[in-house]
Amino acid sequence: MNFLLPLYPIWAVDFFGSLSMIVLGTICLVFSVKIYKKNRNNVLFSYLVLFFAAILLFCWSRSFGHILQHIFHFLDHKTIWKQIEPFSGSFNSMTFFIIFSITLFFYKMKKITDKMTHDREKIIKTSQEVLRLNAAIEEIITERTKTELALRVAHEIRNPITIIGGLIRRLIKESFIENSLNGAREKLEKVIEKVALLEKLVIKFEGIREKDKAIYFAPCEMNQIVEDIVDVVRLEASEKGILLYLDIAPSSLDFYCNKHLIKVIILHVVRNALDFCPRGSIIEIETKKIAKGILVRITDNGPGIPEHILAHIFEPFAMTEFGETGLELPYIKQIVEEHRGEISIKSEVGKGASVEMIFPTHLDELKNIAGNRNNK
Amino acid sequence: MKEIIMFYIVLFVIFFYGFPDDLWALQSHGGGEGFIIHQLAHVLFAVAMIGVVIIIKKIKEFKGREWYYFSLGAFFLAFWNIWAFIGHHLERNVLASSFITSGDGIPSITIDNIVTLMYYIYKMDHIILVPSMIFFLIGLKKISSDKTPK
Predict the structure, then answer these.
(1) How many domains does chain B have?
(2) For chain B, which terminal residue's Cβ has fewer other Cβ atoms within 10 angstroms, N or C?
(3) Which residue has the higher pLDDT, A57 or B148?
(4) Residue B87: closest CA among B122, B128, B53
(5) Could you tell me which residues come within 8 angstroms of residue B32 by beta carbon, excluding any fewer than 6 positions away?
(6) Range of A26's domain?
(7) Which of B98, B130, B132 to mutate: most A Cβ within 10 Å?
(8) Which of B59, B99, B126 would best serve as a mutation to test chain A binding (most A beta carbons within 10 A)?
(9) Cβ A59 vs Cβ A25: under 8 Å
(10) Looking at the structure, do residues A37 and A118 belong to the same domain, yes or no?
(11) Domain boundary among A155, A181, A213
């Protein structure tokens, strides 16, 4: 192998290539700035503008160096180029490091922002779920309160009406009314008719309200309900530095319930524990099959409940030195009882609290309600 | 606090005045470092560009023609870095006597071995570098014309 090759192709490619690099690098930066201006907070767009700024520095340093090299060689001033060459080369190396650093930084930033976006979506989803469940419990409480009130009023009306009706009937039976006033008996009989009608209306009203109070049941699975609840509160617990420990039964825990109500009450108990437990506490949610049915136990190692509050915890608006007990726990108890279940709370101040709910699994009565509803 | 400061002063005096030796505080930087640092810079540049190609390939967000062109640009740039890395090594092994630039003839290079032949080819690195920038430009133009809100 021994032949000559002209240097012109190398020079031509180098010269025009260098010129093209300057032009293309500049246009790329212009476009990246245009993209960046669309959204200055976008990590990717910020990367693009920094990346192409560094690329442009690279293009300029390299291309101007190469062009100058050709010019100085052409003008026979090689010594001048020898003095410039180290600066051009060093600057060129520097731009490589800058590009590497920018890309590495972008990669880390992308990972962080992706995690932030993921967490944000999760928070939004959880907040919506919490809001929905809070709205549901408020709706249930309002509806129940209205029904209770209406039933109480109806009961209060029905009693005097029955008494009034009885007294009038007794009066008619007495013969002196028949003889004392003309048409009095007929008028009294009309009053009795109206009273009887009123009594029927009240009974009918009570019947409707009782129906409103009735809840509908369907086959549910307790482990699934508990897992759904843990999904909702997991982020909140993690932010508060509370460890959520889930100990679910290995087998499926099927029973008849109103899933929505059961979800609301268990969530309420868990969120109560989250509210009162300090950072570093542990909340354990356990489900298991026992002889009586399905057990759900929520245990925490928080501050616990004082004995005098514990004694009145299921009484609505019972006054304690810490204020009223509120409506939630009495309603939770009511919902559990409507499922023919049991609820109990054990606590020791300074050691924590444990809420136990037991739901029966074989309830023909509940199945019938579910069956009726399905038939509808 | 005063005791700690005193302890460090004593330690400093003992260390620097108690054991006198040659001064190595400033390391000299010879010509060879420039070559090594430049080659290392090429390696890091290539790694960064391969990283960009992998990111575009892996992340769902970077789907579409615009990112395809962008990844092509990054790929060509990574390839150029490898090309240039080899080119710099070849350059050091080409003898100055191989170049014929004086005289009336056409400036040329004597291809007497595989190194000079490869050097001749590797010197035309803009054949790779310019297309990489063109691909970047096409990608950027497409991103820029994308009307989807970001």
Answers:
(1) 1
(2) N
(3) A57
(4) B122
(5) none
(6) 8-123
(7) B130
(8) B126
(9) yes
(10) yes
(11) A213
* Interface contact flag, B47 A100, Cβ < 8 Å: yes
- Who among B37, B52, B123 is closest to A93 (CB)? B37
pLDDT band at A297 (very low <50, low <70, confident <90, very high): very high
Report pLDDT for B20.
Answer: 58
Q: For residue B23, is it left (φ>0), alpha (ψ between -120 and 50) or beta? A: beta
Residue B60: closest CA among chain A residues belongs to which residue? Answer: A114
Total domains present in chain A = 3
- Is B133 close to A25, i.e. CB distance below 8 A? yes
Q: Which domain holds residue B74?
A: 36-145
Q: Does A177 touch chain B (CB under 8 A)?
A: no
Task: Kindly tell me if the per-residue pLDDT of A175 is higher than 60.
Answer: no
Residue A119 identity (one-letter amino acid): D
Residue B125 CA to residue B89 CA, distance in Å, equals 14
Q: According to the model, what pLDDT value does residue B17 have?
A: 67
Q: Do B133 and A28 touch (CB under 8 A)?
A: yes
Contacts of B76 in chain A (CB under 8 A): none
Mean pLDDT of chain A: 83
Pairing of strands B108-111, A3-6: antiparallel
CA angle B26, B31, B32 (to 5 degrees): 100
What's the pLDDT at B149? 47
- Name, in order, each residue with C-beta under 8 angstroms of A90's C-beta and a sequence gap of 6 or more: B34
ipTM of the complex: 0.79
Q: Which of A21, A92, A100 sits opposite B48 (nearest CB)?
A: A100
Closest approach of A91 to chain B, Cα-based (Å) = 10
**Residue B7's pLDDT is what?**
84
Strands A254-257 and A319-320: unpaired
- A 79-118 residues with CB below 8 A of B? 86, 89-90, 92-94, 96-97, 99-100, 103-104, 107, 110
Q: According to the model, what pLDDT value does residue A374 have?
A: 45
Question: What residue in A sits closest to B56 (Cα-Cα)?
Answer: A107
> Residue B19: inside a domain, yes or no?
no
A153 within some domain: yes
**Confidence at residue A319, expressed as pLDDT on a 0 to 100 scale:** 57
**A241 falls within a domain:** yes
B109: contact with A, CB 8 A cutoff: yes
The first and second tokens of residue A41, run together, are 């907070």
Which of A158, A189, A213 is the endpoint of a domain? A213
User: Is residue B71 scored above 80 in pLDDT?
Assistant: yes
Strand-pair partners of A243: A282
Residue A332 belongs to domain with CATH number: 3.30.565.10
Residue B13: count other Cβ atoms within 10 Å of its Cβ. 10
Residue A19's closest chain B neighbor by CA? B130
Q: Is residue A275 part of a domain?
A: yes
- Residue B111 scores a pLDDT above 80: yes
For position A375, what pLDDT does the model report?
Answer: 44
Q: Do the Cβ atoms of B130 and A107 come within 8 Å?
A: no
What residues contact A359, with CB distance under 8 A and at least 6 apart?
Answer: A222, A255, A257, A262, A293, A294, A296, A336, A339, A340, A341
